Amino acid sequence: MEQNYRAINIVSNNKPLSLETARILKYKLEKNDFIVPDVFDYNAELIICIGGDGSFLRTVHKYGFPNIPIVGINTGHLGFFQELSPYELDEFIYKYKRGEYFIDKINPVEGIICTRKSCIEILGINEIVIKGDKSTTIHLNLSLDKSFLEKFSGDGILISTPTGSTAYNYSLGGSIVDPRLNLMQITPIAPINTTAYRSFTSSIVVPKYSTIKIHPEYRYENSILIISDGMEYRYSSIVEIQIKLSELEIQLMRLKEYNFWNRVKEKFL
Ligand code: NAP
Ligand code: MN
Questions:
Q1: CA-based nearest residue to 130, from 194, 215, 221
Q2: Taking residues 204-214, what's their average pLDDT?
Q3: Cα–Cα–Cα angle for 195, 218, 244, nearest 5°?
Q4: How far is the CA of 53 from the centre of ligand 2 (A)?
Q5: How far is CA 239 from the centre of its chain?
Q6: Is the pLDDT of residue 3 over 80?
Q7: Distance (Å, rounded) from C-alpha 21 to C-alpha 16?
Q8: Paired strand residues for 17
Q9: Distances (CA, A) of 175 to 56, 128, 178, 203
Q10: What's one GO-annotated cellular component (predicted)?
Q11: What is the pLDDT of residue 4?
C-alpha cells in the first residue's frame, strides 16, 4: 500500500438527509486529498457512518467488526454513538487532519449458541438478549463460571456491555455503567418472583473474565429467540448458550471534548 494512500469509507443509511450528508462529505474529503472508495475498503484509515445508532450498529456488524476507527454522523433520533452532526463537516475534517481526537476501545459481548447439531458465534456491541419466541414464560438455568446461579423464569434475560448499558438495558431498569469499568450486566426481563418461580429481580454485575452459561429448559415447545443489537436469530433445541466479553475491539473515534457523563446528561436528562 502506498504511504500516502488515505482512504475513508463513508457508510450511509437511506434517509434523504443521510444521503445528502454523504454526498457533501465525499466532496469535502476529496478536496482534502482523501480517497472515498465506492466499495468498502478494509485498508481505509477511518469509517464514517451516517445515520442513527441503529445504522452505527448495523455498519459494524455488516463489515465484520473491522479493525478500523469509526465515527458517526447523527441523522437519526437519539444518536448516542454518533459524535458529529451533519452541520460540523468542515470542523470535523479540520480536527481530524490535526489529530484532535482520541480512540475509545470497546469490547463486544460474545455468545456461543450450541444446538444438538452445531455451534454458532454471535457478537453484540450493546447486548445479547435471550427470550422466548412465544408468549409463554421461559425458564433458563443460569450458571456463572462453574457455579449454578438461578433458574430464571420470565420473559428473558439481557446481557449488556458497558456501552449497551444506556440502551435496552436502561429501559429494563438496569444501571448505566461508566465505560472505565469493564464488565457485563445481566438484566432480567419481567422476572417472575412468586412461590411458584423464584428469580432475581435486579441486574447482576459480573467481571469481564466471567463466563455466563445458559441452559434453556424446554416446556410448551417454546423456542428461543436470540437478539444481538436488534438483530434476531431463532433456534430450537438449544443445548447451551455461553456468553463472555470478546477480546475483539471496536475503535470508536471521539472528539477531544467527548465526556461520557456529559453525553448521558445531554441525551437523557
Ligand atoms: P431502535 O428500536 O431504533 O433503538 C431504540 C433506541 O435505542 C433508539 O433511540 C436508538 O438510537 C437507541 N440506542 C441504540 N443503542 C444505544 C446505546 N448504546 N445507548 C443509548 N441508546 C441507544 O433500534 P436500533 O436503532 O436498531 O438499535 C438497536 C438497539 O435498540 C438494541 O441494541 C437495543 O439496545 C435497543 N432496543 C431498545 C429497546 C427498549 O429500550 N425497550 C427495545 C429494543 C431494542 P437511534 O434513535 O439513534 O437509533
Ligand atoms: Mn434506531
A1: 215
A2: 98
A3: 90
A4: 6
A5: 25
A6: no
A7: 8
A8: none
A9: 22, 16, 10, 8
A10: cytoplasm
A11: 81
Backbone angles phi, psi at 95, to 5 degrees: -65, -40
Active site residue 145: no
167 lines ligand 1 (CB under 6 A): yes
DSSP per residue, 37-57: -SS--TT-SEEEEEE-HHHHH
b (16+ CB within 10 A) / e for 47-79:
bbbbbbbbbbbbbbbebeebebbbbbbbbbeeb
Per DSSP, what are the bridge partners of residue 49? 11, 72
Instruction: Kindly give the distance from the C-alpha atom of residue 6 to the centroid of ligand 1, in angstroms, as a whole number.
Output: 32
Q: Which of 189-203, 209-223, 236-250 has the lowest mean pLDDT?
A: 209-223
Indicate which residue's Cα is closest to atom 36 of ligand 1.
Answer: 168
Kindly report the pTM of this predicted structure. Answer: 0.96
User: What's the pLDDT band for 236 if we cut at 50, 70, 90?
Assistant: confident
Cell (9 digits) for 65: 467488526
What's the grid cell of residue 228?
444481538
Structural domains for the chain: 8-106+249-268 (3.40.50.10330), 109-245 (2.60.200.30)
Is 44 annotated among the ligand-binding residues? no
Task: Give the amino acid at 149.
Answer: L
CA distance 68 to 9: 10
Secondary element (H or E) of residue 16: helix 16-31
Residue 167 is assigned to a ligand binding site: yes
pLDDT above 70 (res 220) = no
CA distance 205 to 219: 28
Tell me what percent of the residues of the chain surpass a pLDDT of 70.
98
Mean predicted confidence (pLDDT) in 69-79: 96
Residue whose grid cell is 428473558? 156
